TrEMBL record:
<dbReference type="InterPro" id="IPR029903">
    <property type="entry name" value="RmlD-like-bd"/>
</dbReference>
<keyword id="KW-0560">Oxidoreductase</keyword>
<comment type="function">
    <text>Catalyzes the reduction of dTDP-6-deoxy-L-lyxo-4-hexulose to yield dTDP-L-rhamnose.</text>
</comment>
<dbReference type="Pfam" id="PF04321">
    <property type="entry name" value="RmlD_sub_bind"/>
</dbReference>
<dbReference type="GO" id="GO:0005829">
    <property type="term" value="C:cytosol"/>
</dbReference>
<dbReference type="GO" id="GO:0008831">
    <property type="term" value="F:dTDP-4-dehydrorhamnose reductase activity"/>
</dbReference>
<dbReference type="GO" id="GO:0019305">
    <property type="term" value="P:dTDP-rhamnose biosynthetic process"/>
</dbReference>
<comment type="similarity">
    <text>Belongs to the dTDP-4-dehydrorhamnose reductase family.</text>
</comment>
<dbReference type="InterPro" id="IPR005913">
    <property type="entry name" value="dTDP_dehydrorham_reduct"/>
</dbReference>
<dbReference type="InterPro" id="IPR036291">
    <property type="entry name" value="NAD(P)-bd_dom_sf"/>
</dbReference>
<feature type="domain" description="RmlD-like substrate binding">
    <location>
        <begin position="1"/>
        <end position="276"/>
    </location>
</feature>
<comment type="pathway">
    <text>Carbohydrate biosynthesis; dTDP-L-rhamnose biosynthesis.</text>
</comment>
<protein>
    <recommendedName>
        <fullName>dTDP-4-dehydrorhamnose reductase</fullName>
        <ecNumber>1.1.1.133</ecNumber>
    </recommendedName>
</protein>
<keyword id="KW-0521">NADP</keyword>
Length: 279
């Protein structure tokens, strides 16, 4: 087996499958019922039998608010920490290159500037905590790895903020959206292209941050999403829109390490327009 994708039916996994199809690259995609990553024996047996050379590890527990229930005991710990540890160890055993996707939520968001790959994570919610432990497991056990942190992901094949806004606009003339959380939206297509690029170009192993260019707050993102609709958007503060999980206020990630590789990153406005054209 050349390429294995975990979480192959998720938002990113599906985008990656379409990209590899377009590029004529053979792969095997698995999801929970084919390969439950929390089952160490099953992961080891699968890797031993199939000997993948490249593992795009897209499987994760991604329900940020639900993860706040029973911190440390919740299923997110099993999937994001135990599951990723199983994958990292199994990848090392068969000599595979591992690509792990992480999140801007590893940061607490108190930096008014941009976070670089050298900044120390300090996650303030449960999802960020388990994704950071996943990063550490990859760095500890995998020998050849890329950790790619991303943020505010939207794509054709999953639940995301863009679809939520467009759906709400069908039934609401007015929406309120927070304007005090700043970050960078990321189109799954841009992320999938960079994942393939890192492997193709044999980039140095290690940690990279990849989102679309330009930053915004959620209110600005919503306004752009809804600009062709009649729905108006009003800004509110995070205090006016309480959520179970803490959200970083400023989690804008510096992209210069990826840019230095020669990979061209579209702006989020360009990415959003291209996404809408494909919808
Ligand atoms: N979405 C975002 O805004 C965002 C932001 C930053 C980083 N990320 C990261 O980007 C990556 C891709 O996210 P996504 O948006 O594509 O997530 P997603 O749509 O929730 O997909 C995750 C996939 O993982 C699978 N999975 C869950 N538990 C599993 C298990 N025990 N064994 C095997 N597969 C399992 C799920 O399968 P089932 O459906 O069968 O459970 C699902 O297909 C993740 O690492 C995520 O942490 C996402």
């Amino acid at each position: 087996m050349e390429i294995l994708i975990t979480g192959a039916n998720g938002q990113l996994g599906t985008e990656l499958r379409h990209l590899l199809d377009e590029r004529g690259k053979a792969y095997t995609g698995t999801d929970t019922h084919e390969l439950d990553i929390t089952d160490e024996a099953a992961v080891n047996a699968y890797f031993e039998a199939n000997q993948p050379k490249i593992v795009y590890h897209c499987a994760a527990y991604t329900a940020v608010d639900a993860a706040e229930e029973e911190p440390g005991k919740h299923i997110d710990e099993q999937v994001n920490v135990v599951g990723t540890t199983n994958i990292a160890k199994a990848a090392a055993k068969v000599g595979a290159t591992l690509i792990y996707i992480s999140t801007d939520y590893v940061f607490d968001g108190t930096n008014p500037g941009m976070y670089t790959e050298n900044d120390q994570p300090a996650p303030k919610n449960e999802y960020g905590r388990t994704k950071f432990l996943g990063e550490q497991a990859v760095a500890k056990y995998a020998e050849k790895y890329y950790i790619i942190r991303t943020s505010w992901v939207f794509g054709l094949y999953g639940h995301n903020f863009v679809y939520t806004m467009l759906k709400l606009a069908e039934t609401h003339d007015k929406l309120t959206v927070v304007d005090d959380q700043f970050g960078r939206p990321t189109w799954t297509r841009t992320l999938a292209e960079f994942m393939d690029y890192a492997v193709e170009k044999n980039l140095d192993y290690g940690l990279y941050q990849l989102s679309n260019e330009n930053s915004c707050n959620w209110y600005e993102f919503a306004k752009e999403i809804l600009k062709d609709t009649k729905t108006t958007v009003t800004p509110v503060t995070s205090e006016q829109y309480p959520q179970k999980a803490y959200r970083p206020r400023h989690s804008i990630m510096d992209l210069s390490k990826v840019e230095a590789t020669g990979f061209k990153i579209p702006t989020w406005q360009e990415a959003l327009a291209a996404f809408k054209a494909k919808m």
